[in-house]
Amino acid sequence: MVNDSAIRYGFISRFFHWLMALGFVWMLLSASARFIDKDAAFTKFVFAYHGQVGFTILCLGVLRVIWAVIQRANRPENPLPVKIGHTCMYVLMIVVPSLAVIRMIGMGRGFTYWGIWPILEKTGVETAWMKDLGNTFHGNLGWVLFALIIGHIFFAIKHRYSSKDQDVLPRMLGKTF
Question: Which site among 60, 89, 92, 160 is 20 to 30 Å from 16 CA-CA?
Answer without folding.
Answer: 160
